[in-house]
Design a protein that fits this description.
Largest sheet: 8 strands, mixed
Protein name: NAD(P)-dependent oxidoreductase
InterPro entries: NAD(P)-bd_dom (IPR016040), NAD(P)-bd_dom_sf (IPR036291), Polyketide_Oxido-like (IPR051606)
Organism: Bifidobacterium pseudocatenulatum
Shape: globular
CATH class: Alpha Beta
Distance between the termini: 28 Å
Pfam families: NAD_binding_10
Radius of gyration: 16 Å
Helix content: 25-40%
Strand order of the largest sheet: 3-2-1-4-5-6-10-8
Number of strands: 10
CATH superfamily: NAD(P)-binding Rossmann-like Domain
Length: 209
Amino acid sequence: MKIAVVAANGREGQLVVKEAVERGHDVTAVVRGDNKTVAKNVVVKDLFNLTAADLAGFDVVVDAFGAWTPEMLPQHSSSLKHLCDILSGVNTRLIVVGGAGSLYVNPEHTTQLKDLPTFPAEFKPLAEAQGKALEELRERSDVKWTFISPAADFQADGERVGSYETAGEELTVNAAGESYISYADYAIAVVNEAEQAAHVGERFSVYAK
């Protein structure tokens, strides 16, 4: 498969590139500066300057964009809109590296993880921004999108176990009552979805056993 990873120099982006390359896919890293990934194919361009021509011919585009400072948080929405606009009406699938804060914690889907009083206050603005981007994405019927939420405890340096469980829109815990996944195992889920196209037009979540 031909896979492009946008914002590939980020920690999750690098792992997605590595996972896809090791499986033999033709991977292109889209980065703003020097390529820090193992991809041999590189497009050096800011996400907001990408055109439809830049992403033409790919089977899958992975959006690994992330922003954390208050002034940058709105770019979760604007960057995703830009990618959707240039992928509108084509067969290329868009897989979005999402967050856990928008996962529901009740069967009625009226309360999200970020709404709980126990949710860390410092992460709430990020969760709100990612949740807004997801809601906007749900309105797009012109793009073959998938949004993948990690577990609540998303560990950058966690061990690559090589397996994970999938769930839907609700926060799900393992047998030990934990909602955890490593960046490396999340990357496996991203590339599996790229290969299998099992959740087109859906948000799903992943967590460690």
